[in-house]
Amino acid sequence: MRTLATFLAAALAAASASAETLHVLNWDQYIDPAVLKDFTSETGIEVEYDEYTSAEVTEAFLISGAVEYDLAVVSSEYFGRLFWAGSIRPIDIARLRGHEHLDRRVTSRFDRLDGALTHAVPYLWGTTGIGYDAEAIAARMPDAPVDSWAMIFDPKIVSRFADCGVSILDAPEEMISIALNYLGHDPATSDPEHLAAAEDLLAGVAPYIGTFDSEQTSRLADGQACIAVSWSGDVLLAIDEQIEGLDIRYSVPAEGAPIWFDVLVMPQNGTGSDASYKFLDFLLRPEVIARITDHVWYPNPNAAAQALVDPEMLANPAVYPPKDMMEKLFPIPSRAGEEKRALARIWRRVKLVL
Question: Which of 9, 97, 302, 352 has the largest count of CB atoms under 10 Å?
Fold first, then answer.
C-alpha cells in the first residue's frame, strides 16, 4: 500500500512533468499547428512557440543571447555565423532515432558547412527562383525567357515589366550570389573583380526594380508585382491565394539557383533538455514532417517521408525539383566579418540607384 507521502510525491512529480515547457522559435507560418498539439498530447510537454519574420534581427538576438529558446529554426546562410560565434550548442545526434531518415543526397549541400553535422538538424528546404504572372508577362513579351535569370538581369527584358511591378528579395548575400552565378562566377567568391561585376549587373537593372522585399507572397497574389524573385514556398502560397484574373507560376532558372535549408539548432542559452531531443525526434518522424510539408508547401529532406507527402505536391517540380535541376542548385554561402560587410555596402549602393 502506498503511503500518503508517497502518493503526494508521485502527484508532485506528475505535475512537474506535465508542466514542462519547451521554448521554440520558428519562421512565421512555418509549421502545421496541429503538430504542436499532437506533441503535447503525446508527451505532456507544453510548447511555447514564437514566430519571426526577420532573419537578421533573429540572428542578432541569438548571438547576443538576448532571448532564451530551447530550439530555433534558422536559415543555412545564418547558421554558420551562429556556429562561429559559439551561440549554439552541439546536438547529440546519437540520441535522435529519426536522424537516419535524412536523405544525404539532398542535405549534402548543407552538410559541408562547418558544424552542420554536429550542431543542426535539417527541417525543411527549398529553392529561390522567379514567381511571375504569366498573363501579364505574355501581354508585354510573348517570348519572355521565364526560365532564365535574364528576366531580372537583362535590362532590355526586365524594363518591359517595370510598369506591372518587379520585386526582388531584400537579401544581399542571396541576390549577389545569384548575380555571381548568372555571370558564370562562383556564387561564394570574394574576388573583388567578380563582386564589382555583380554590383554593376544589379545596379544596371535597379531602375526597373519597384521594391526590395522579402515578403513576396502578397505582392504576387494581389497583383502588385508581375515578377518577383522569391522563395519557392512563398510563390506556391501566392498561387493558392491569387486574386481572380492572375496566373501566378514559379520558375527555377536554367542557369541554376540557390538551394537553402532551414535547420533546427539549440541556442546556447537554452536548456539542452530531454524535451528538446523529444521534439527533434518527433519532427524527424516521416509521418510528422510529411504533414508539415503538406501544410506549408516546402519540401523536407526526410527520405522516408516522401511516400507520405501529397502525391500532387511530390510531383510538382516547383516543390521537388527534378534531378537535372537539383544538380544545378547551389548553396548560399555563409559570410562573416569584412566579407559580409562588403556585400552590405554593395547592396546599399545598388538600392541607391533606384
Answer: 302
